[in-house]
Amino acid sequence: MAALPSQQIRFCTARDGTRLAYASIGSGPPLVKAANWLSHLDYDWESTVWRHWLKELSSRFHLLRYDERGCGLSDWDVERFAFEDWVEDLETVVDAAGLDRFPLLGISQGGPVAIAYAVRHPERVSHLLLLGSYAQGRRKRAKAQEEVELIDALIDLVRLGWGRADPTYRQMFVARFLPEGTQEQWRAFDELQRRTTSAANAWRFIDEFANIDVLDLAPRVTAPTLILCARREPDNNFQASRMLAGLIPGSRLVPLDSANHLLPEQDPAWPRFLAELDAFLGSTPRPQPAPPGS
Length: 294
Fold this sequence. Notes:
By secondary structure, the protein is of the alpha/beta class. It has a domain of 199 residues: Alpha/Beta hydrolase fold, catalytic domain (Rossmann fold), CATH 3.40.50.1820. α4 packs antiparallel against α7. It is globular. The model has no long low-confidence stretch (mean pLDDT 90).
């Protein structure tokens, strides 16, 4: 089998001067992945959390992905840290890569960013693919004051405990993202958390995620849209995806038989996700060796 080309890491500059790291790998039609929290363009290839994602997606597409501001290889010390900045960063990366029209993948909070981009640039987004996503962050969709207080308590716990050597505080997020993961995957996820961002930025991310609201934007999406979510995800996330599917015209919802937010490689829902992706985007995987270096 022919070896894959090496991952190419480059940098571009956002409107406010923030340096953003982006990477491309693979051949074939383009696929852009909107950034989501906890990524590191280099380390992701070593991590059991993301390695199978990168192998499979780059075997089908010319994959373009990037680290959010405050995360991974992008600048960590940034003043602006809001949803609008994340949408503008996606615009900056896509323009720097010279892409014209492409399918857009949004995972978790990358979904609302992808929705906002698709509404702003309908001529550029051919398909929209969303996994474990939502229209409103947890603070916005809370039904009672007790829910808001619990969310704020969890956010404050990140502020106080994220940077400690004791992983107990970060394990709370491991349990939410990979409840059915292996011990090795739990360790890898905690290492990913430690490497990808600072304690201060982790708090800023979580606080801003809770305030996301694209309720008014979602009905304006015109691209064909496929929404997938694990049925048994914690925090009732499936209902959030179900609500999102009701907002985006003509979208299709695919429930996945899993509790995992990020779909580890051994999860039976992982091949189902890939099959749905191939059917939706007309993609075909190519044989490939182990992950390349960057």
